[in-house]
Structure formats: C-alpha cells, structure tokens
C-alpha cells in the first residue's frame, strides 16, 4: 500500500530560518558474538587426518587406502587384528615410517612435507615402558627434559609438575625397578608429556598390565584429554576402547571398515542379545536352533566357549521361551542371560574373527621385526636419530637424540 513520504522535521533557527534537528550520535553496531568453543573446534583442522594412505612391502599391502579423521581434544580408538595395519598407521603419523601414497596430516601439518614440524607437536608411547629402572622417577623425567633441551631448572620444575599430574609425587625419589607395572606405565606416559604435545599416540598402552594397572593408565589418559591433548589409541582390548574412546575406527587388511562412536557401532548389530553357554559341545546345534526361533537375526556360535548369542526384540518373551525349551529338550546350560552388544561382537561382525585381546600384538610385533608386516623400514624418516634401543627394551625414537618416541 502506498503512503506519502513524511518530510524530515526541521526546527526554526535564531534568524527565523529552518535548521536540521540535531540528532543523537549514532550507536555503533554490536560487536559480533564470540565463536562458541564447539564451533571453533569444528572449524579447526582435525588433529589427525589420513586420506587414501598406502604402504606396501613388495606384494604385501600393509595399508591399502586407509582413511582416518580424529577430532581435536578426543580419544580416538584404532582397533584391528594382528597385522591389520594399526602400528603402520601410528609409525607413519609419528614420522617413523615413510608413506607410499595418499596423504597424512597431524595438527594441520603434512607428515611427508614437514616431518620436523610434526615431531614438535606429538608424543608417542609404544607397547612397553622405556624408562630407566635403575634411577628414580624424578631423575627419569629430568633426563628426558634435558634431552628436550630444557635447562636444568626448567627440567626439574617440569618433572615435579608431571609427577604430581600422574599421581607419582609420593614415589618420585624411588628407583623405578620398585614400581608396579601400572606405575611404570604412568611414568612412561609422563615422559611423553614433557613438552605437552597436541597429539599423543598410544600404541597398546596397557599391554601386559593387570586390571589395577590398566585402570591407573586409563585415569591418566582421561586427565590428559581433559587438559586438551588429543589421543590416538591403538588397542586389542575391546573394553579399553569402549571405556576410553569417543570414537572408534576398525581397520582390517589395511582399510577402515567402520568409523563411529562405540555406542553407534554396537547398535549396528542390533539391540539386546540373548546369550546361552551350554555344558556339552554336542548341544550347540540344538541350542542354536532353539534361539533362532525367537531371534531377530542369525545366531552366532563359538565352539571354543560353547556360547551362542543372537539379537532379540522381545526381551522377556524370548528369554522365557528359550529357558523352557532348553529344559524340555534336557539341554544343560552353564549360563543364560540378556545383555547389550559388546565391541567384541562388533569386531567379529566386521572382521569375521574376534579381537586377540589377551596380550600384546605379538604377530604384528614379529612382522615389524622381520620386515614382513606392518612396521618394516622403521626409523628411516627421523632426521638421524631414530631406532636406538632404550632401557625398557623397545625401539624408541627422538628427533634429535634417538632416545624417546616423544619427539621435539
């Protein structure tokens, strides 16, 4: 609808003429709102990125187009069977191994183009603690601080901070040989944090530890992430990934076959599951047929443990039917129940076999040592110092000294 233009009001000046009305000074526009931390993190490049990563040894393809995105300030689990390529991924990202194709970035820096800059931003802790058992925890940390070119005073101050952070202050002046496995591992993690790296690579960090030691290491990892460190964790302990990881990638035959949160991965194979353990192996087939009648998917059987599991929708009805039918057919069971899916079942579903979580990645380690698997070529990309044998028995690397995998 048309409306007439309204003339600008004018006032009469002292001489009888008209003058523009004085207006208040214009108000400046409001300042833009600060970017929320979550949005800022989303806009920042990922902590770790691989795109079509490839590594081969003759005819063997250790990595065959591996893709990975690790968000900043998170724990990202990398799961896979022995020889799947986990250690190869970590060694490439840590500049200990040259890639044959694809692209890899850590903290926004290209691994192949500027490995020195990458090493200033990362820490790496291998499968076994590489601390000197003869000297004290404090002396170990001061030693590594000096290797990172800290002066004596700064090295001592940083050692004290880390001893407090990792709960080792009371044992600071005890020889490491008196430490438990969990305490040694926490000290090893502390040496990796001398320069507070943006990204920390943990390769099988709780191998060989008892449950208490594993719990101690988990608490230390959580505290690091709370402080802003990003962690890429390789493990064969499925419960470890379930408890620690915000997101999990499953690698098999050099490729990523799944990438999601643990909860989302478990939802892929259904909701609740009924599980039966029979006493006699000969009853496995009959029990499987009974469970199949009430399940929403094909039952999975494990002859070694005499265990059968299958997804169900009607929890109570399924359990009631199976219990009654097993009794009617005189099949003796050692255990029966309903539970949620586990990452172990996800792993089995994706790779066709269970994770070997009962110990260190022996097969992969042997392949690394002989050059036939994931990690041949070690130390060929470390600016001259990598690969020296450290006191703990594992091959450690430091960009300048050849001493420690946490590199400056």
UniProtKB/TrEMBL annotation:
Membrane topology qualifier: Peripheral membrane protein
One term of GO molecular function: ATP binding
Domain ABC transporter: 48-278
PROSITE patterns: ABC_TRANSPORTER_1, ABC_TRANSPORTER_2
Compositionally skewed regions (Low complexity) per UniProt: 388-400
Keywords: Antibiotic resistance, ATP-binding, Cell membrane, Membrane, Nucleotide-binding, Translocase, Transport
Coiled coil start-end: none
Pfam family, one: ABC_tran
Basic and acidic residues bias: start-end ranges: 374-383
Annotated Pro residues bias: 22-37
Residue numbers spanned by region Disordered: 1-45, 354-408
Location (main, coarse): membrane
Gene3D superfamilies per the UniProt record, alphabetical: P-loop containing nucleotide triphosphate hydrolases
InterPro entries for the chain: AAA+_ATPase (IPR003593), ABC_transporter-like_ATP-bd (IPR003439), ABC_transporter-like_CS (IPR017871), ABC_transporter_ATP-binding (IPR050763), DrrA (IPR005894), P-loop_NTPase (IPR027417)
Subcellular location: Cell membrane
UniProt family annotation: Belongs to the ABC transporter superfamily. Drug exporter-1 (DrugE1) (TC 3.A.1.105) family.
PANTHER family: ABC TRANSPORTER ATP-BINDING PROTEIN, DOXORUBICIN RESISTANCE ATP-BINDING PROTEIN DRRA
NCBIfam families for this protein: drrA
Protein name: ATP-binding cassette domain-containing protein
Organism: Streptomyces zingiberis
């Amino acid at each position: 609808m048309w409306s007439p233009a309204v003339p600008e009001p004018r006032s009469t000046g002292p001489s009888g003429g008209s003058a523009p009305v004085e207006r208040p000074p214009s108000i400046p526009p409001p300042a833009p709102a600060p970017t929320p931390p979550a949005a800022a993190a989303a806009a920042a490049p990922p902590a770790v990125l691989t795109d079509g990563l490839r590594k081969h040894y003759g005819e063997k393809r250790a990595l065959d187009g591996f893709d990975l995105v690790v968000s900043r300030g998170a724990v990202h689990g990398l799961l896979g069977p022995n020889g799947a390529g986990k250690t190869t991924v970590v060694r490439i990202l840590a500049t200990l191994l040259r890639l044959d194709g694809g692209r890899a970035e850590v903290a926004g820096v290209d691994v192949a183009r500027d490995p020195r800059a990458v090493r200033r931003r990362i820490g790496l802790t291998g499968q076994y603690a590489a601390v000197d058992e003869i000297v004290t925890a404090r002396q170990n940390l001061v030693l590594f601080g000096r290797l990172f070119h800290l002066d004596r005073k700064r090295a001592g101050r940083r050692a004290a901070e880390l001893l407090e952070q990792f709960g080792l202050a009371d044992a600071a002046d005890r020889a490491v040989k008196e430490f438990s496995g969990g305490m040694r591992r926490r000290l090893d993690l502390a040496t990796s944090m001398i320069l507070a790296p943006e990204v920390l690579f943990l390769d099988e960090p709780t191998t060989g530890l008892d449950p208490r030691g594993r719990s101690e290491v988990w608490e230390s990892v959580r505290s690091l992430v709370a402080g802003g460190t990003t962690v890429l964790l390789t493990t064969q302990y499925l419960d470890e990934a379930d408890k620690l990881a915000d997101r999990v990638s499953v690698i098999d035959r050099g490729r990523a076959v799944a990438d999601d949160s643990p909860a989302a991965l478990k939802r892929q194979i259904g909701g609740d599951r009924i599980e039966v353990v029979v006493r006699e192996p000969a009853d496995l087939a009959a029990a499987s047929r009974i469970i199949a009648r009430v399940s929403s998917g094909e039952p999975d059987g494990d002859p070694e443990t005499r265990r059968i599991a299958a997804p169900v929708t009607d929890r109570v009805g399924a359990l009631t039917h199976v219990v009654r039918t097993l009794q009617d057919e005189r099949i003796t069971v050692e255990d029966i129940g309903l539970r949620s899916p586990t990452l172990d079942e996800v792993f089995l579903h994706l790779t066709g076999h269970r994770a070997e979580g009962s110990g260190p990645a022996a097969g992969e380690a042997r392949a690394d040592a002989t050059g036939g698997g994931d990690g041949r070529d070690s130390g060929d990309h470390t600016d001259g110092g990598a690969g020296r044998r450290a006191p703990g028995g594992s091959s450690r690397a430091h960009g300048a000294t050849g001493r420690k995998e946490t590199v400056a």
